[in-house]
Amino acid sequence: MKAKKILWIIIFNSIIILSEIIFGIISNSFALIADALHNAGDVIAIMITYIALKLGVKKTTFKYTFGFIKAEMMAAFTNTLFLFVTMIYMIYEAINRFYKPEVIEPIYMIVVGIIAVFANGISAYILNNLGVDSCPNHEHHHHEDANIKSAYLHMLSDALISVGVVLAGIFIYYFKIYYIDSILTIIFSIYIILHSYPLLKKSFLSLMDINIVDISQEKLDKIIKSDENVLEYNDLHIHKPSSKHTFISFHIVLVQDLLLSECENITNKIKQDLEAIGFNHILIQVDTNSCLKNHTNCDMT
Q1: Is the Cα torsion angle 111, 126, 208, 212 positive or negative in sign?
Q2: Angle between the 106-130 and 30-56 helix axes, to the nearest 10 degrees?
Q3: Average per-residue pLDDT for the chain
Q4: Is the torsion defined by CA of 278, 282, 288, 290 positive or negative?
Q5: How far is CA 70 from CA 12, 67, 117, 176, 205, in A?
Q6: Would the pTM count as exceeding 0.70?
Q7: What is the maximum span of the chain, computed from C-alpha positions, in angstroms?
Q8: Each residue of 233-290: pLDDT tens digit?
Q9: pLDDT confidence of 135, banded at 50, 70, 90?
Q10: Phi then psi for 293, rounded to 5 degrees?
Q11: In what helix (H) or strand (E) does residue 133 lie, and over which residues does it extend?
Q12: Residue 295 φ/ψ, nearest 5 degrees
């Protein structure tokens, strides 16, 4: 259902892009053509989102043991990076237009711009509602789909730029102030850059398998060492390959030889506590005290 709605957004916005290009040429409005090109880039980004959603539901295989769960973060990073580049380009073009304003027909800007505002606004609203899912295993945890959020940011940026086009058209119609288009474009572009930076950072760190989980080492120590038989834990790995998956793996060193059933009781309690704070892929290896390392992190050498 989610993928189907996104497909309709792609089709709907492609029609808007074609309209903006046609009326941009007719009215000699560079702002409309630039907005159309910006929208076209965003539709491509949403196509990437659509593909990532399709890949993300594929089952794991012997070759693809993790499936395609990183497709979400890969698409989010690509989309947001493209958005950054597009906004910087828009600022560059806006500065050029500020010094070299072109005479345009504002009526087309206003009419087509209003249509684009509604189209992009509706698309952004749909994507924003699609972006948060409840985890079936933990009703109090909500996972924001980074991939869909990046697509939402693209549509939001389109809507804001279209607002700029409409306002510029109104000012040009009444006051012949052509450079207002450039000023609004720069303001909106800077806003989108600042608004999308956290997602760019989050998706990049996720792809690098860096720990972005909101948990302190003290809290993790308390959970893992809650049983007196646990001397230490080591070879720790924490990463978040997608908005719906939080992985953790480590070894625990026990103070003495225990029965297998006792070891299971210890690890089951640790898993239960970790699941309660959002971890959903937990791997624990049990070692004897001969494996003491006196450090927590994995030694990669």
Answers
A1: positive
A2: 20
A3: 84
A4: negative
A5: 28, 8, 32, 50, 12
A6: yes
A7: 85
A8: 999 999 999 888 899 999 999 987 789 999 999 999 999 999 999 999 999 999 988 8
A9: very low
A10: -120, -15
A11: strand 132-135
A12: -150, 155
Residue 300 confidence (pLDDT)? 65
CB 15 within 8 A of CB 21: no
Contacts 24+ apart (CB under 8 A), 220-226: 223/270, 223/273, 223/274, 223/277, 224/250, 224/252, 224/270, 226/269, 226/270, 226/273
The single-letter DSSP state of residue 69 is T
Q: Mind listing the domains of the chain with CATH numbers?
A: 2-207 (1.20.1510.10), 217-291 (3.30.70.1350)
Q: Helices (DSSP H) in the chain: which residue ranges?
A: 2-27, 30-56, 71-99, 106-130, 146-175, 180-207, 217-224, 260-276
Evaluate whether 185 touches 90 at the Cβ level (below 8 Å).
Answer: yes
Q: What is the dihedral of CA 85, 86, 91, 93, to 10 degrees?
A: 120
Six-digit token pair at 231?
């001397």
Task: Please count the CA atoms within 13 angstroms of the CA of 62 that sit on its side-chain side.
Answer: 0
| Side chain identity at residue 18, one-letter code | L
In this predicted model, which residue has the larger pLDDT, 290 or 111? 111
Identify the helix (H) or strand (E) that includes residue 140.
Answer: strand 138-144
- Out of 129-138, 264-273, 287-296, the most confident range is 264-273
- Give the closest residue to 77 by CA, choosing from 193, 194, 205, 188: 205
Amino acid identity, position 296: T
